[in-house]
């Protein structure tokens, strides 16, 4: 099995001012192997080469939580985190590996993806993560999930406005949504500012960076929950993406 680049330690250090411990590195390696194995039966990800996996899945997942010192501290101390549309477990599983004091809820609407993640969690003995088959629009209206989380992560689930509608209702006051995006435009800034404001949020930071191996453009948006989300949000299943705020 291809070794998942232990020589990346220096790049972790240079870019995130952090390095995985040996046991975290071993779990990253095991995660990579399990995903390659799972890909034989399920179409989980087209990213399978070790360098690409490292950069686009591991590094990218962790880069999203790295720039905010307050966020890192809260993950280290123990935060309640939800990852919406986690797919094969990104960014939630790498975050669960590095933030062992936090609880990570991994949500996806596709049962077969969640069944696969259940296997990953059990193989990696990741007891701080749990799974849920559901849609963001549904759990956003359920009292056991609405306004219950400190951090909501969302990567590659849609444009920023629906992502704001999926995540902000789930956050406690003061909580933070991290929306992982590729390219970004000024028009998107205007539309997400408007969406966030209607949902009780504010745009705290739009972080623009490139990935360390292929210089690919990335953006992460950080939305802070500053007021209660009005009861009519999130709207019914499908509406946030079909009729963005
Ligand atoms: C392109 S994949 C991204 C997976 C992962 N976040 C990543 O970055 O590799 C989008 C995932 O979001 C899930 N999804 C889409 N809309 C959703 C919703 N409203 N609620 C929950 N999951 C959703 C899909 O089932 C799919 O697994």
The distinct bound ligands, ions and cofactors come out as:
S-adenosylmethionine
Largest sheet: 7 strands, mixed
Assess the beta-strand content as a share of residues: 15-25%
Class from helix and strand fractions? alpha/beta
What topology, given as strand order, has the largest sheet?
Answer: 3-2-1-4-5-7-6
Number of strands: 7
Q: Which architecture name does CATH use? A: 3-Layer(aba) Sandwich
Write the layout of secondary structure elements.
Layout: H1 9-16, H2 22-39, H3 50-63, H4 69-77, E1 80-84, H5 92-98, E2 103-108, H6 111-123, E3 129-133, H7 136-139, E4 149-155, H8 160-167, E5 171-181, H9 186-199, E6 201-210, E7 217-225, H10 239-242
Parallel strand pairs: 1-2, 1-4, 2-3, 4-5
Antiparallel strand pairs: 5-7, 6-7
Helix pairs in contact: 8-9
Bound molecules: S-adenosylmethionine.
Residues 84-88, 90, 107-110, 113, 135-137, 155-157, 166 line the site of S-adenosylmethionine.
Short recap of the structure:
The protein is of the alpha/beta class and 245 residues long. Helix content is 40%, strand content 22%. The chain has one domain: Vaccinia Virus protein VP39 (Rossmann fold, 3-Layer(aba) Sandwich), CATH 3.40.50.150.
């Amino acid at each position: 099995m291809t070794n998942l680049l232990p020589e990346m330690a220096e790049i972790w250090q240079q870019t995130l001012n952090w390095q995985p411990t040996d046991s975290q590195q071993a779990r990253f390696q095991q995660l990579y192997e399990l995903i390659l194995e799972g890909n034989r039966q399920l179409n989980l990800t087209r990213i399978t080469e070790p360098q690409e996996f490292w950069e686009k899945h591991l590094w990218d997942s962790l880069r999203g939580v790295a720039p905010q010192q307050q966020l890192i501290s809260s993950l280290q101390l123990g935060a309640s985190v939800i990852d919406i549309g986690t797919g094969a477990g990104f960014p939630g599983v790498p975050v669960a590996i590095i933030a062992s004091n936090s609880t990570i809820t991994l949500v996806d609407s596709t049962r077969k993806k969640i069944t696969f993640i259940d296997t990953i969690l059990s193989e990696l003995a990741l007891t701080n993560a749990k799974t849920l088959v559901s849609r963001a629009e549904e759990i956003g209206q359920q009292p056991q999930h609405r306004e219950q989380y400190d951090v909501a992560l969302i990567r590659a689930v849609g444009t920023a406005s629906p992502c704001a509608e999926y995540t902000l209702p789930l956050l406690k006051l003061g909580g933070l949504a991290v929306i992982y995006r590729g390219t970004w435009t000024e028009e998107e800034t205007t539309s997400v500012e408007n969406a966030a404001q209607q949902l009780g949020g504010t745009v705290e930071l739009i972080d623009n960076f490139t990935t360390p191996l292929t210089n690919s453009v990335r953006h992460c948006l950080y939305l802070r929950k500053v007021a209660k989300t009005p009861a009519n949000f999130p709207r019914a299943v499908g509406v946030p993406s079909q009729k963005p705020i």
